[in-house]
User: Fold Ketimine reductase mu-crystallin from Mastacembelus armatus.
Amino acid sequence: VDMAGPPLIIWEREVEQLLLYAELVPRLEDALGKFSRRDNAEVIQPVRTTVALQKHNGFLGVMPTYMENDGLLCAKFVCFYKRELGSALPATQATVVLLNPQYGNVEAVMDGDVITGMRTAAVSAVSAKLLMRPDAEVLAILGTGKQALSHYNVFTEMFSFKEVRVWSHRKEGIERFRQSVSGPVTMCVSVEEAVTGADVIVTVTRCTEPVLFGRWVKPGAHVAAVGACRPNWREVDDVLMKEAVVYVDSRDGAMTESGDVILSGVEVFAELGDVINGTKPAHREKTTVFKSLGMAVEDAVSAKLVLDKWKAKASQS
Ligand SMILES: NC(=O)C1=CN([C@@H]2O[C@H](COP(=O)(O)OP(=O)(O)OC[C@H]3O[C@@H](n4cnc5c(N)ncnc54)[C@H](O)[C@@H]3O)[C@@H](O)[C@H]2O)C=CC1
Ligand SMILES: O=C([O-])C1=[NH+]CCC1
Assistant:
């Protein structure tokens, strides 16, 4: 172990080349299951600490975790901002740090943007795998940013939808999105048009007020709600939250950070990890919402996968 040397630096392009959904998804399922077992000897993951960046209308989120049996000590620093509508600046910026749990030195510093994009989308895909109806045909994505793109990629890789619809508040956004994906998309000018009759709906906007309303959602649909990560931000309305069986990544995270959960007053039915562990049922036939906030264990197993693959590649050359 090189405790004195500088950490490895692995940046965006390399992370992009090394991370594959097919390898990431099973590791994320394992991490979600471990987290929900609440065994402190296995996983420690406190709710992330957020520091307000008042002048810049944003927050720094610090997301540490220790996964003892995996020998993983990791922290992500993620800044996220409430941007003006149409701002070209990114909504989030992230860096992941892997430490040696025995010695405490930093082993690797990695770009966290690709990891955040891919692990968030892959976890939403896991929620769909568990909670959507088996005959799901239509996917609707609200938003056309980074998360929209990663969600499109993993959902079309894992499932075969007959139609993928995309909505954004700006036409240019949808056009750009259409040009950056390899498969077909139906461009929608209104949210209602995009979600009516959809079997799976992904909300990946920067909205702080509801953009998806329950009255438009087909009974039995599955919604992965990914934006709105502050206790006073919303992306979906009370009608949808109350109609749905609500699943989350972390109960404590949702009760601390999710405006959609806190302000609608709904009861969280289960964590995704509970379903993976077989301790809570998957209500596929009902309308379901998976409220995602993002967890450190997801970043940790993603970063470990990147590091392992980086090392394997380095030893070959
Ligand atoms: N649950 C999780 O683990 C994570 C959640 N997020 C959240 O996901 C959301 C999307 O993130 P990115 O794709 O990186 O952002 P982005 O900035 O790349 O894309 C945001 C999208 O929202 C649209 N948008 C912006 N303001 C809007 C408004 N007022 N109404 C409707 N649409 C609006 C933009 O046109 C764009 O299509 C953010 O809220 C972010 O905080 C991000 C990372 C992880
Ligand atoms: O988990 C994550 O990286 C984030 N969740 C909300 C903004 C960033």
Remarks:
- The pocket of 3,4-dihydro-2H-pyrrolium-5-carboxylate (ligand 2) is lined by residues 61, 78, 80, 92, 94, 116, 229, 293-294 (CB under 6 Å).
